[in-house]
Structure formats: structure tokens, C-alpha cells
Design goal:
- By secondary structure, this protein is α/β, with parallel strands linked by helices.
- Helices cover 37% and strands 16% of the residues.
- Strands 2-1-3-4 form a four-stranded parallel β-sheet, with helices on both faces.
- The model is unreliable at 1-5 and 175-190 (pLDDT under 50).
Length: 190
Amino acid sequence: MSGPGADRPAVGVFLCEHLEARWGLPVSQVQRWAAGTPALTLRVVRGVCESPRALQEPLARSGVSRAVLGLCRRPASRADLQAAVRRAGLDPAGVEVVDLGTYAARAHRPPDAGRKAVILLAGAVARARAFVGSLPHHHVPVFPRTVSRRSLLTLSALEYRSALPKIEVRRTGAVSDRPPGGAGGGPGER
């Protein structure tokens, strides 16, 4: 197989239905971007923010190996979301969740909100494509601070957090977020 998207894994972008209806995010801008992006499918899913289980069937039927969720808010229960993703046959560590409601729809007016949503989703798609998979020792089960009664009944109360080390930029000085030219000091200055 050859072509511009041949070496890219298939990624599905699943948007919450409330983004346009309640928050005024121009989903048409996101659809135009998705149509021009190779190996990418886009679907608007009903009820994702209320219940992560609503995502299970669309994820399983999509046939994608990686997913990006564009939600109107962060999920109430990360454990429920991870359980639904696992039931759909995907690795929860490879699913990117983007809070488009907070960072795009509520922060900007409609034309700018659409552009911001495309930028956020493009970054999440790039991260999803770069995901190589995970092994059981890459994750640590954690009991969350708040648990819904439903999670306790369905035994999906555990969350899985990455056990891989993270690089702290402020300690290493390897990557600086300061402007070039010494303004504000360099990595070795205090």
C-alpha cells in the first residue's frame, strides 16, 4: 500500500454532540480539517459526556487502532472511561482526551473556537499516532479519590496511571520555555 497516509495508523476522532448544540463550537471547521487529513475518521457521538459507556460501541465498530476524544468537559470518572475503552478493544493509554469545551468553545468566539479545536485535535492526533503501545508494567492501578456508585457495582473503580518516568524541564534545563537571547535567565542562572 502506498500513498500519503499509508504508514500512518488509523485514528478516530470522536466528538461530543454537545459541542455545537450547547457550546456553539463550529464542528463544520473540524469536519473540513478531518476530511483533508489522511487515515483519520471523525464521528459525533451522542451521550459521551454523560456516560463513557456510550463510547464503547462506536469505538468498537470504527475499526481504528487509536482514538482521540473531543469532549465538552473532562469525564467525571476516568476509570469508567478507561473501562469502556478497554471493552472496545483499545489500549486506554493510547486514547487522547481533549477538553474542547473548556479550551476552545468557552474560551473563544465561534470562528476562533473552531480553529483552536482543530489545533488541539491535531496535536492529540499526532500524540495518538506516536503511541507505540503499552505493557502491563507501564501502568500502576490507583484507586481514585472520588468513585461513583456505578463504578463500584461494575468493578471499574480502578484508574491506571503511567508508571513511566517524566522529565521535569525545570530541573534538567534541557528544554527551556524562555525566550532566546538570555531574556529571563538561562538554564544555569537563578
